[in-house]
Amino acid sequence: MGAVAAILVLVLRPAAAHDFWLQSDDIRPPPGIVIAVNLLVGEHFIGDSLPRPAEGVERFEFLHAGGTSKVMGGSGELPAGLVVMPSSPMGLLTYLGGGASVELSLKDFNRYADAYGLRQAIETAGGWKEAGPFSECFYRYAKSAIGDADAGGLAGQALDWDFEIVLSTLPQANNNDLRGRLLAAGEPVPDALVRLYRQGEPGLELKARSNADGSFVVSLPGPGPWGVMAVTIARAGFFASCDWQSRWASFTFDWRR
User: Fold this and answer.
1) How many domains does the chain have?
2) What phi and psi, each to the nearest 5 degrees, are found at residue 22?
3) pLDDT digits over 104-129, tens only?
4) Which candidate, 229, 230, 190, places its Cα nearest to that of 210?
5) Which of 59, 81, 209, 234 is the S-S candidate for 71 at Cβ 3.0 to 4.6 Å?
6) 128 DSSP 8-state letter
7) Is residue 251 a contact partner of residue 143, using CB atoms and an 8 Å limit?
8) Which residues touch 51 (CB under 8 Å, ≥6 apart)?
9) Residue 17's pLDDT is what?
10) Domain range holding 76?
């Protein structure tokens, strides 16, 4: 990461930011080659690469027309994974991981709630009457389109994850609308903030709220690599090790006219 980008991360990233997404070194690869897949964490689609976790990785796969390919790699490695492209190299990189936690002061928790549009959800779940600090366990659900923005027809298919973004309608040459849904185990997630960023433009942020059926629509200002981000949060159960549990979802794709 260059010095300017690093400075932007420090300026733009609120306390405990952990937007998470996948990025491959080739989004339109030919058949048979091996592509590298990076795990990135950051804000405004600017991030730092993470090594492959030693534990907590539930799924790291490439879904395609011919089936499922594992994204291979060892604990602590950078890039986090390698995958061989099938004969039809279009599909969806997927990652599920969780169990990580972070501790936040009351001040940072308030900033965090406002930055990610979570204040109403937190108040509905009982607010933050305690003095803090707060512990949050977070779980990550990431998708990235390979081959084309539609991921070979997989972008609009739900995987029945605990939290996921499904892109039902991608922009067209004469229509810039991106339509999608937020789902939790197949059920709609209403009134959640959806944020969109175009890579290389940290000052550009598009926002929408999901409707009662989990759907959202955003008009994109033009083509490019896009990241769609969303998060949900809820009080943890009585026997949980954390005060709050959050689920972070992302979907990255490259729209070309």
Assistant:
1) 1
2) -105, 145
3) 888 888 888 888 899 888 888 887 77
4) 190
5) 81
6) -
7) yes
8) 39, 75, 76, 77, 78, 80
9) 55
10) 3-255
The CATH number for 195's domain is 2.60.40.10
CA 7, 9, 12, 14: dihedral to nearest 10 degrees?
-130
Q: Considering only CA atoms, which of 155, 244, 144, 242 is closest in space to residue 199? A: 144
AA letter at 104: L
The string of pLDDT tens digits covering residues 45-101 is: 999 999 999 988 999 999 999 999 999 999 999 999 999 999 999 999 999 997 688
Separation between Cα atoms, residue 28 and residue 225, nearest integer Å: 12
Phi-psi region of 132 (alpha: psi -120 to 50; beta: other; left: phi over 0): left
In the prediction, which pLDDT does 5 show?
A: 37
CA distance 225 to 116: 21
> 63-90 b/e with 16+ CB inside 10 Å = b?
bbeeeebebebeeeeebbbebbbbeebb
Q: Which two tokens stand for residue 4?
A: 């300017």
DSSP assignment, residue 153? G
Express each pLDDT in 205-230 by its tens digit. 999 999 999 999 999 999 999 999 99
Two structure tokens written together for 5: 């980008």
**In contact, 63 and 88? CB cutoff 8 Å:** no
